[in-house]
């Protein structure tokens, strides 16, 4: 059998132990047995064009087969899939969460769950909970937990989020919400906080517009619509006025520190006032390192 150490894989073939480099290394079976060995290798491995070496991915463990019919040494692969990413991203209104969520989900294929979108969909449906939520949002107040917590919980428990991992956008926003969320055992791997000066936030919000046809968000100054036709149909969200955004900012600042106290060990603070590319570079670096750690953990557990 094979064992994994901090320095690599110990592979035992035909009674001999041999140490191989860590994941992402190349393993070459003995030339005399390469024909038999290659048949037992997982299709996830790839052969080099120049020889019979096999490239290993980081989440694979080498094992020696016990049931091989041939006396020649042979190898099989047991793949341990890493746990999916569970990420939270927070920040004041117009801090750039939507833009970063788009970039993150595009690269890491996570399920984007926006608490604000869930609430707005509930409001648009005209349900009783939607009517109650709108009353609180118009006052710049947080929507009660009994409405939001269950809504978010049910979305994260759906199969796509459980299998691919999730990116929770704009939630939790208070200590009570974070505490209630932890009771459902939803613990993030990383809590990303985008920090932007308040005067810039107000400017971003007031100039923000929604295309009701495509759902895309534009900004009259920073990201104007591509044509007059699109510009003519743009709408402003009811809570994107200067008065309401200042109320929302006040609520955000009052609650964000309490939320950070819950996730302080996994918090990444990012300067959201720089370009979206620079913001994403910081986030991307953190997520890449996180995935590497999960891959190693998955290999050790295999």
Automatic annotation (TrEMBL):
<comment type="subunit">
    <text>Monomer.</text>
</comment>
<keyword id="KW-0067">ATP-binding</keyword>
<keyword id="KW-0150">Chloroplast</keyword>
<dbReference type="InterPro" id="IPR027417">
    <property type="entry name" value="P-loop_NTPase"/>
</dbReference>
<keyword id="KW-0418">Kinase</keyword>
<dbReference type="GO" id="GO:0004017">
    <property type="term" value="F:AMP kinase activity"/>
</dbReference>
<keyword id="KW-0934">Plastid</keyword>
<dbReference type="InterPro" id="IPR000850">
    <property type="entry name" value="Adenylat/UMP-CMP_kin"/>
</dbReference>
<dbReference type="Pfam" id="PF00406">
    <property type="entry name" value="ADK"/>
</dbReference>
<protein>
    <recommendedName>
        <fullName>adenylate kinase</fullName>
        <ecNumber>2.7.4.3</ecNumber>
    </recommendedName>
</protein>
<dbReference type="GO" id="GO:0005524">
    <property type="term" value="F:ATP binding"/>
</dbReference>
<comment type="similarity">
    <text>Belongs to the adenylate kinase family.</text>
</comment>
<dbReference type="InterPro" id="IPR033690">
    <property type="entry name" value="Adenylat_kinase_CS"/>
</dbReference>
<dbReference type="GO" id="GO:0009507">
    <property type="term" value="C:chloroplast"/>
</dbReference>
<keyword id="KW-0547">Nucleotide-binding</keyword>
<keyword id="KW-0808">Transferase</keyword>
<dbReference type="InterPro" id="IPR006259">
    <property type="entry name" value="Adenyl_kin_sub"/>
</dbReference>
